[in-house]
Amino acid sequence: MTAKKQNPAEGPSQAEWAAIADTTLPGGALGTNMVPKAERFIIRCGQGARVEDLEGNWHIDYVLGAGALILGHAHPAPMKAVEEQLAKGIHFFGALNEACLHLARELTDAIPCAERLAFTTTGSEATFYALRMARAFTGRPNVLKFEGAYHGNHDYSQVSVSPGAATNFPAGRADSAGVPEVLPSTVLIAPYNDLETTRKIVEPVQRVIFSEPGFLSGLRKICDDNDVVLIFDEVVTGFRLAYGGGQENFGVTPDVAAYGKIAGGGASLGAVAGKAEIIDFADPARRGNGDYAQINGTLHGNPLASAAGLATLMELRKPGFYDDLNAKADDLRKACQQVLDRHHLEAVVCGQESFWQILFLDKPPRDYADVRASDMATSKALDFGCLSEGLYVLPGIRRFVSAVHSSDDFEETVRALDAACRGLA
Question: Cα–Cα–Cα angle for 256, 357, 217, nearest 5°?
Answer without folding.
Answer: 30
